[in-house]
Design a protein that fits this description.
Blueprint (H helix, E strand, L loop, with lengths): L1 H13 L3 H22 L7 H12 L4 H12 L8 E9 L3 E9 L2 H14 L3 E3 L8 E3 L1 E6 L4 H11 L3 E5 L2 E6 L4 H10 L4 E5 L2 E3 L3 E2 L3 H15 L4 E6 L1 E2 L2 H8 L1
Parallel strand pairs: 10-12
Antiparallel strand pairs: 1-2, 1-3, 2-11, 4-9, 5-7, 5-8, 6-7
Helix pairs in contact: 2-3, 2-4, 3-7, 8-9
């Protein structure tokens, strides 16, 4: 869990750049469109859409942009047709990688993902070779201003399951279907919600102690996420915060 959470924190810091934020919003809008198309445009009746909207709001996407994405998904405005694909592979060091994709051309995207792995010393894997190691977990990250006991009481009141420290932040864990409700309740209680999502988390992590290997892993993660069709990347590595900061430079 640590690997994904720390990587998400670094992405949040990097996302301050306008260009990176614009790419993030485009990916979030695509997720909202697909969720609205599959099960309707009412977040109260569509758990997938509710989670996608919570994730978008935590990333400071505007309500107007969210509404436009929902309308494209429900057919009120023109929209492309996207296919959801989960690619699997290995980064250097034997780290398992899952890649969540929404694409209008699976052949193009598959070739691009394969090229990234090849260029950065990784490899694609057959379906099922990696995914069995992961399970979906609701995760809401808030600013770390409150003491742990206060955060725990507040989180449990919102329906969350657990709380863990992540650097300067608190990670509030819950059922995937409860992400939006927990995020809304924490925000209503005056907490700053930094992210709200239901990522795929590895049951067991590979500890990375070598800086060179850490750099190679993060290069693969970053290069994959640069692809416009990639919505998220999950991996089963763990490393110290200091090493991750050094490797990400």
């Amino acid at each position: 869990m640590s690997g994904h959470s720390k990587w998400a924190t670094i992405k949040h810091k990097k996302g301050a750049a306008d260009k990176a934020r614009g790419k993030l919003f485009a990916k979030l809008a695509r997720q909202i469109e697909v969720a609205a198309r599959s099960s309707g445009g009412d977040p109260d009746m569509n758990p997938s859409l509710r989670t996608a909207v919570a994730k978008a709001k935590a990333s400071q996407m505007t309500n107007d942009a969210i509404d436009r994405a929902i309308k494209r998904g429900t057919g009120e405005q023109g929209a492309d047709s996207y296919e959801s694909i989960l690619y699997e592979g290995y980064a250097p060091g034997g780290v398992a990688v899952l890649i969540d994709v929404l694409t209008d051309n699976r052949n193009r995207t598959g070739a691009e993902i394969r090229n990234v792995f090849t260029k950065h010393g990784g490899s694609m894997a057959e379906p099922g070779a990696v995914s069995w190691q992961f399970a979906r977990k609701g995760m809401v990250v808030i600013a770390g201003d409150l003491p742990e006991d206060d955060v725990m009481m507040l989180a449990l009141d919102t329906g969350a399951d657990d709380v863990a420290r992540d650097g300067d932040h608190w990670r509030v864990e819950c059922e995937p279907s409860q992400v939006a409700a927990v995020a809304d309740a924490l925000s209503a209680a005056g907490q700053t919600v930094l992210s709200a999502d239901a990522p795929l988390i590895a049951e067991n992590a590979i500890q990375v102690d070598d800086l060179d290997t850490a750099r190679k892993i993060l290069r693969v993660m970053s290069a994959i996420e640069d692809n416009d069709d990639v919505q998220d990347v999950f991996a089963n590595f763990d490393m110290t915060e200091e090493m991750m900061e050094d490797a990400a430079e």
